[in-house]
Design a protein that fits this description.
Layout (H helix, E strand, L loop, with lengths): L2 H26 L5 H4 L4 E7 L18 H8 L2 E7 L5 H10 L3 H4 L15 H6 L4 E5 L20 E3 L18 H14 L5 E7 L12 H4 L4 H22 L6 E7 L19 H4 E7 L8 E3 L3 E2 L3 H9 L13 H9 L8 E5 L10 E5 L3 E5 L4 E4 L17 H17 L6 H4 L9 H15 L3 H14 L4 H13 L3 H14 L4 H13 L3 H14 L4 H13 L3 H14 L4 H13 L3 H14 L4 H13 L3 H16 L1
Parallel strand pairs: 1-5, 1-6, 2-8, 2-9, 3-4, 3-5
Antiparallel strand pairs: 2-7, 6-7, 10-11, 11-12, 12-13
This protein binds zinc ion.
Zinc ion binds next to loops.
Length: 639
Amino acid sequence: MPRTAIIKFVHAINRLARPLFCLLAVISGWGQNPARQKSPPDVFLITIDTLRADHVGCYGYRNVETPALDALAAGGVRFTRAFTHSPITNTSHITILTGLLPSVHGVTDFGVPLAPEHATAAELLKQRGYHTAAFIGAVILDSKSLAPGLDRGFDFYDNFPAKANTKERWGRVERRGMTVVEHAEAWFDKHRSGPHFVWVHLYDPHDPYEPPPPYSEKYKDHLYDGEISYADSALARWIAFLKKAGVYDNSIIVVTGDHGEGLGEHKEETHGLFLYDSTLHVPLIVKLPRAAHHGLVIEAQVRTSDILPTILSVAGVTAPADLNGESLLPLLAAKQSGAPAPERALFGETDYPLRWGWAPLRALRSENTKWIEAPRPELYDLVSDPKELKDLYSSSADKEKVQTMQAEMANWKAKVPPANDAKAAEDLPDPKDKVEVQNLLHNAMLAADDNRTADARQSLEKALELDPKTPAVLRQLGELELAAGEFSTAAHHLKRACELHPEDSTAAFELGEAMEKSGDWAGARDALESSLKFAPSQLPARVLLGRAYLQLKDPKNAADQFEAALLVDSGNSDARLGLAEAHIQQSDFTGAVSDLEGFTKAHSQNAEALRLLARAYRGLGKEQEARLAEAKAAAAERK
Ligand SMILES: [Zn+2]
């Protein structure tokens, strides 16, 4: 076609297409403001931690006030049956931000880094010119410690201060919802030009349940609901801010929970151990630009992995290939046209029990059936038994159902990388038999966090009575006694933990510490050698082992340990001084001087180094230099 003909053809298409486009825009409710039509939507993600769907007003719960969530649902789309793939905060959030299953993104425990090949919502939107920021409510999502890699793609990630100058939990391990929102508002005020992707994490409903007044009073008999109502008030403030900033209309706002809360169902007080609906069923509300589809309620089962593909679809960003989730938008169209939507099965995972040496769990939830793979598997009919109280696994009538679910589960497992120790996990205890121990361990952890040592000790001793052979209980008790200065009691518990779980390098290191502090140098040496066998690059263990060898008058082995420590960190002062001491003990005074001369120049006020240098000079017969070093040491000590 000649060039002029092409131009005419394009103009003709445009003339035809324009009215059609306008008509579509009016019907769908999008693009009523032509100036805004071209601008990509702002994206606001709000995750409310530990939020059970059935404890939210618009989900039918009558004992809580959640006006912000209810209003957002009225102005958006509410999904009545949304489920998380994981009952663990970090794992679940990474699924929300990547659209990947836990065993695909691999962050199945705290502290595990998110591998760079998995793109996050922040990275994908930033590439398209979005200004990105994250505001977290708990230190467990801090990218410098327990959530490495989660800050990728964010221009600003609101981590906690490296050294909190408070013993209070507020500001050190947790921020109240209002504080999180204040931080988000302050950032937004300084970064007005869009489009924005802002993630706000409200941690409040997570235990301990301590809502501020007036929620503490109004909900005093059900404080978990008080936390939810308080978090809702923080959400209300954030939404009001977005409206005032003029960005509400053209935005997509997604609110969800990362997981629910056991609240004693199946004997689980909190979350993480099991894959029942009490911890997997979460609210999901999606407000689309221009309030498209507002008031729609979708009953089809959906998953938190569907959130990222939905956001990308609304923002017009191509989704990476191989996401596990799918956009929710086709479900809205299907609902409005009355067409059936294909079922979206939920593959649930928890590796959290592995922390205590118990079997990890996998679950498959279809619309009507739940299959839980465990040492003692479980099958539930979710229609007749939504609380999952009647396990049908052994009932002969359901053999066929079991086979179907097992086959379906095998299909899902084929999509994910194989578990590391799948074979070993088969022999581990069933978490169902350990839930009371886990509740006590959790209480002890909270008490220790709040410096309530006596309460922590009581919970742990009770756990030990229930289960004298769980290494994690012994280790936690040992750590508590170590911190309390009860070194021989600590050593007693840690020794038992190491006997039961010899590969636990941390317990062995702590045993070494406890023994060193009770003056048992040979015991400390053995424990530290064994710790380093399983984790050779531990710097503190190397230094402590070097010191144990010095005490045992074995300077050659001591020098080996300090040299190994310096290979890991050449600037480590303890290792440098330890090595000098080892050289002096071996009468290698020249070696000691060379260890120390440079060091004392850089650390001219380090009295210990100066005293060692004096001993080394004296060994070489350099009395004048020795006296000078001693004088400098004395001056440094006086300061
Ligand atoms: Zn959580």
